[in-house]
Amino acid sequence: MRPIDLSAWPRAEVFRFFSGMSNPFYSVTFTVDVTRLLAYVRAHDLSFYYALVGLCTRAVNSVENFRYTLRAGQLFLLEERQPSFTDLHKGAEQFHIVTMPCRGSLADFCREAGARSRAQQTFVSQEDETDALIYFSCLPWLHLTALTNERDLDPDDNIPRIAWGRYVTEGSRTTLGLSVEVNHRFVDGFHIGRFAQALEEAIEGLEA
Fold first, then answer.
1. Distance separating alpha carbons of residues 147 and 28, to the nearest angstrom
2. Sequence-ordered list of residues with C-beta below 8 angstroms from that of 162, at least 6 positions apart, any chain
3. Angle at which helices 189-204 and 35-44 pack, to 10 degrees?
4. Is-contact 162 176, C-beta < 8 A?
5. How does DSSP classify residue 132?
6. Residue ranges with strand state E in the chain
7. What average pLDDT does this structure show over 67-75?
8. Which of 5, 36, 81, 124 counts the most CB atoms within 10 A of its CB?
9. What are 74-132's pLDDT values in tens digits?
10. DSSP 3-state assignment of 15?
11. CA 193 to chain centre
């Protein structure tokens, strides 16, 4: 984690502008082609959900603006963010939240995520709740076209919220709607575009 001099930060003027707003948060939902990802997880017997969490985490961490955080008024650049994702035990209706590092290969992450989720007996581990997270959720029962998240309206909160719905296959292509909610003090549409491009390139680079 590296401290940032706010007075010399190139984004300082934009940051101050959006700091004057009571609700500086906004959400964007866009379509992602997951055809190659679906083929990859089926070929390697992996969870589609965990795999997309892992790929999104890497894409977020590739864009600097997603990694800023404020602590006691001091701006920092995090080395990385970690995924904190909702999940369901088999046969359950009540979800739980799993928080863990994103390490190793995509297959390694998927298997570790599954093991941790199955072993977890609490709703959430409070000791893992920090400002260095990405909040993930999924609504696999719905084709997602928009989404908002619950939150305390803390203007210093720069934790990205990412969610997606059911994937839909039409012809030879499979797509889903993916929602990204961010704080405009730190993240612009340009940066969401860079995230989307990084995610798309990661998916297209998968070898089934």
1. 8
2. 56, 60, 134, 135, 136, 137, 178, 179, 180, 181
3. 40
4. no
5. S
6. 2-4, 25-33, 68-71, 74-77, 82-87, 96-99, 133-139, 161-165, 168-170, 173-183
7. 95
8. 81
9. 999 999 999 999 999 999 999 999 999 999 999 999 999 999 999 999 999 888 889 99
10. helix
11. 14
DSSP secondary structure of 118-164: HH--SS--GGG--SSEEEEEEETTS--S---------TT----EEEE
- Tokens representing 90? 């088999």
CA-wise closest residue to 159 among 109, 84, 79, 62: 84
Cα gap 208→193, rounded to integer Å:
26
pTM above 0.90, yes or no: yes
Residues 110/46, Cβ–Cβ less than 8 Å: yes
Residue with tokens 């297209």: 204
Query: How large is the greatest C-alpha to C-alpha distance in the chain, in angstroms?
Result: 53
Pairwise CA distance, residues 99 & 134, whole Å: 9
- CB-based contacts of 11: which residues, under 8 Å, 6+ apart? 65, 186
